[in-house]
Specification:
Helix content: 40-55%
Strand order of the largest sheet: 2-9-8-7-6-3-4-5
Structural class: alpha/beta
Largest sheet: 8 strands, mixed
Shape: globular
Number of helices: 14
Radius of gyration: 21 Å
Bound molecules: 4'-deoxy-4'-aminopyridoxal-5'-phosphate
Length: about 425
């Protein structure tokens, strides 16, 4: 088990005069493979199936700008001022009906902490729970941004197996016991139960209470990261783990995928002791979340039909998922993949013997980008998979991207 991702080489600055001065924790920080790809993949001639950028082309920016201008005229001095470290009370109230859609009906505004994106929430929870060498159990493959946070706190990330129904309860229990036998402190289970990034799978409804029961019995905190839960293609939502257990679950959700990531506004719900520490950690990290961003979000929520927008996203992303699925059937029938029920990602297994990471420069030359599966593991696995995002490109571009990818794979198989 390693904590640093061996797949992502650190950026080495030659003759860095501070080379000997960095903290140990900086040694385990690595550029994410996705960030490294970003510049190349955003060239217009490249079909990017790499990034997880939501499609914002259908946002009502003209109408929104009028409401935002009014908000600034009337409340500019609040919007441009420092605010509460726990977050704007109005927004903490506004997130309650959103969470109710996934069965969380008992949360109060005081249980909520607003964060600078869920990325910051992951940093805060790790900061308050984990010392170097502690263990976080996580699904493998794992959200690359979470791996980055866990590594930066020098935590040991231990993989727990998933299948088509998500995290396997028995594997979770065994992993806790094995780590405890080895004398390790298991601090939490990190899970993305809905429309997983990158695996695309969803934890079955039947498994959810079983996982909660194990966590309670073994006293392991569950960190439930749920940015995609409202983006199910059949209109269905799944009961949040937090809806069944308010004491053992820290819940994270975000406006990044249902409104816009540029706002950097997300929220957490935690039991009282943890919530108090999260507020202190938020304060020491950033003083307070941006009032301007939070009030932009509340303006949007208060004046626009956000539920209708989510419905629209669901059908748009479903169409793109279908375009991905049919293009894969047409051009890459010998590969295997899942057909996700929601979210942004298809997890593609490539033919035996090929290496998704090694192949990537050839794919870029062929003007298609993806993320190698290696980005989502901390132990060198994943070269036999790639993550294909269908959220941003149009169905036609998705089809063209898969056609180009099939050309690259065919050439690899020929050599
Ligand atoms: N968790 C998961 C599973 C994600 O996919 C992402 C974004 N890609 C995040 C957290 C971070 O989201 P945010 O923009 O809210 O920081």
């Amino acid at each position: 088990m390693t904590t640093a991702n061996p797949n992502t080489a650190p950026t080495v600055i030659s003759n860095d005069p501070w080379f000997d001065s960095y903290a140990h924790r900086a040694e385990s920080m690595r550029a994410s493979e996705i960030r490294a790809l970003f510049a190349v993949a955003s060239r217009p001639e490249v079909v990017s199936l790499a990034g997880g950028m939501p499609y914002l082309g259908r946002m009502p920016f003209a109408e929104l700008s009028e409401q935002l201008a009014r908000m600034l005229r009337e409340q500019g001095e609040v919007a441009w001022q420092y605010g509460s470290a726990q977050g704007d009370p109005h927004l903490r109230e506004d997130v309650l009906p959103i969470m109710a859609l996934e069965g969380i009906t008992d949360a109060q505004p005081d249980d909520v902490v607003i964060t600078n994106g869920s990325q910051s929430g992951l940093d805060l929870i790790t900061r308050i729970m984990c010392d170097p060498g502690d263990v976080i159990l996580a699904e493998a493959p794992n959200y690359v941004g979470a791996l980055g946070v866990f590594q930066s706190f020098q935590v040991d990330v231990v993989n727990v197996t998933m299948d088509a129904d998500g995290l396997i309860p028995e594997a979770f229990e065994e992993a806790v016991q094995a780590q405890r036998r080895a004398g390790k402190h298991v601090k939490m289970l990190y899970t993305v139960p809905n429309f997983h990034n990158p695996a695309g799978v969803t934890m079955s409804v039947e498994r959810r209470p079983r996982i909660l029961e194990i966590a309670r019995r073994l006293h392991v905190l569950i960190v439930e990261d749920n940015p995609y839960g409202l983006l199910g293609f059949d209109g269905r939502t799944y009961p949040a783990l937090r809806s069944m257990d308010a004491q053992n679950v820290v819940y994270l959700s975000s406006f990044s995928k249902i409104i816009a990531p540029g706002m950097r506004v997300a929220w957490m719900v935690a039991p009282p002791g943890i919530r108090q520490k999260l507020v202190l950690a938020n304060e020491s990290a950033i003083l307070c979340p941006s009032n301007m961003s939070q009030m932009t979000v509340t303006t949007y929520l208060d004046h626009f039909d956000w539920q209708a927008r989510i419905e629209d996203y669901r059908s748009m992303y479903r169409e793109r998922r279908d375009a991905m699925d049919s293009a894969l059937h047409e051009y890459l029938p010998t590969c295997s993949w899942n057909k996700p029920k929601g979210g942004f990602y298809t997890w593609l297994k490539i033919p035996k013997g090929l290496d998704a990471k090694a192949m990537l420069p050839r794919a870029i030359t062929a003007k298609v980008a993806y993320v190698s599966g290696t980005a989502f593991y901390n132990d060198g696995q994943g070269a036999d998979h790639m993550r294909l995002s269908f959220c941003y490109p149009t169905p036609e571009r998705i089809r063209e991207g898969v056609r180009r990818l099939a050309g690259v794979i065919d050439r690899e198989l020929d050599t």
